Amino acid sequence: MIRTRFAPSPTGYLHIGGVRTALFSWAFARKHGGVFVLRIEDTDLERSTPESVKAILDGMHWVGLDYDEGPFYQTQRFDRYKEVIQQLLDAGHAYHCYASKEELDAMRAEQEARGEKPRYDRRWRPEEGKVLPAPPEGVSPVVRFRNPLDGVVAWDDAVKGRIEISNTELDDLIIARPDGSPTYNFCVVVDDWDMAISHVIRGDDHVNNTPRQINILKAIGAPLPVYAHLPMILNEDGQKMSKRRDAVSVVDYADKGILPEALLNYLARLGWGHGDDEFFTMEQFVDWFDLKDVSPSASRFNNEKFMWLNAQHIKAADNQRLAELVAPRLASAKVDTANGPALTDVIALVKERVQDLNALALECDYFYARREPSAADLEKHLSAESRERMARFADRLAELADWNAESIHGLFKPFCLDEGIKMGQLGMPLRVLVCGTAQTPSVDAVLALIGRDEVLKRLRA
Ligand code: GLU
After folding, report:
1. Of all atoms in ligand 1, which is nearest to the CA of residue 192?
2. I need a surface site. Which of 112, 375, 400, 457 has the fewest CB within 10 A?
3. Is 294 strand, coil or helix?
4. Centre of ligand 1 from the C-alpha of residue 202, in Å
C-alpha cells in the first residue's frame, strides 16, 4: 500500500515550495491508488501559530490537493512520543544525559581549541564496563538517542540516488528535552512509523535529517520508508525564493489572479517533465507522474512561462467559473454588472486577451460603463470630422433590424464606402467613443453585447 504525507510546520504561510512537495506526494499516492496524509508539525510551540495552520488548510483547499487522512497534529500526540521514548530507554537505545549547558559549552570550547568538530562526547552514554557519574541532584536530564558508533547509514533516494553517511558523523541526538517534550526528528520518525508512510517525499533541506531518522527507525524496529528528496525551487535570478523579493505564499498567487490548476501545472513542471508537454491537467499529471523522472537538481521559476500557462488555463476554464472569480474583483472596482450583458458572455469574448484574473476583470468594465478615454486616444482617433461621422453611423445602428454581431458587421463595408474611409477610421473612433479605449476585441461583437440602447446613448453623448 502506497502511503505518502505532506508534513508542513505551521510557522508562516504556505510556501509554493511546500505546495510542490504536497503536489508530488499527492500525485504519487493518487497514481498508485494509495493514501495521502496531511500532518501538521506543530511541536515548535514558539513558532507555530493557529493563523499559520489556517493558511496551510486554506491553501491546500485552494489548490485542491485533497488528503485522505488528517490533518494530524503533533501536539496531540505527545503521549505517544513519550511512550516510544520510554521504550527506547528500556531497550537501551536511549539514555539520560545530565550535562548542563555550562558543561556542554566548555566541552565545545575545548574541542574547538583542539581544532576538532564540536560534538557531544557521550559522557553519559552507558557502555559495558563504563562507570557513569551519579546523576546530579535536582537536574532534569535530556534523553539522547544511542547512535551506532560505526558503520554507515545508507539509502537509495528515489530522486538523488544512493546516499551514504558514516555514523562517525552523527551525534547522540537529543530526542526529549528536560521537560520531557520530544524533539523534531523524533516526532517525524514516530509519525512516519505510526502512519505507515511508505514514501517520504519532501524537500532536500531534510537530507541531513534522514540518516538520524533512519537510525531511530531501525532502533524501534520500524520498516524504512523510501525517501525521495526534492530539489529546491529558485527564483529567476537563481536565488533561494524569499518573501521579500518573490511571490512565495500561495495567497500571493491567488491575489495575482492565478488559477490554482495553473499553479499546480507550473509547479509540476519544476523539477519534473513529461517530454515537451507544458499544458496539462492534474489527471494527466497523475497518470504520467513517476519519482524516477524527478530531476535531482534545482529548478528556476520562470515568470513569463508561468503567466503564459495561466493564460492557457484561463482560456480552457469554464466561463461560469471565471465569472464567479471575476465578480468580486469587479465589485471591489465598483463595476455594477446588474444592468448589462451576462458576465459569462463578456468573459467568453475577452478571456483570450489576458494572462490573469485581475486583467480579466479590467477587460470587463466597459461593457457595463464607458471608460473615460485617455486624452491621447481622443486626440488620435476623434477629429471633429470623425465625430460627425460617428453621429451618422449611430443613425445606421439605430435603424438596424436585428441587433447582433453579424448584422452590425454588415453595416461596416457600405458605411466605409459611402464615407470613403478605411475600416480603421470607423472602428477606432467607435471603440473610443463607446468603450473609452481603442483596445477591445472585435468591435461588432463588443457592440452587440453592450446592447443597442446603451451603444447609442454612449455614441450620442
Ligand atoms: N515539517 C517539515 C517542514 O516543514 C517537513 C518534515 C518532513 O517532511 O519530514 O519542512
Report:
1. 9
2. 375
3. strand
4. 7
Which candidate, 55, 78, 64, places its Cα nearest to that of 22?
64
Question: Which class would CATH give 375-460?
Answer: mainly alpha
Per-position DSSP letters for 207-263, written without gaps between them: GGGHHHHHHHHHHTTPPPPEEEEEPPEE-TTSSBP-TTTS--BHHHHHHTT--HHHH
Domain-wise residue ranges, the chain? 317-365, 375-460
Residue 195 Cβ < 6 Å to ligand 1? no
Quote the ligand 1 centre to 208 CA distance (angstroms).
12
Distance from Cα 33 to the centre of ligand 1, integer Å: 23
Classify 317-365 by CATH class: mainly alpha
- Which three-class secondary structure state does DSSP give residue 429? helix
How far is 94 from 277, CA to CA, in rounded Å?
51
| pLDDT tens column, 369-403 | 999 999 999 999 999 999 999 999 999 999 999 99
Q: Is the whole-model pTM more than 0.90?
A: yes
Domain 317-365 matches domain 375-460 at the CATH topology level = no
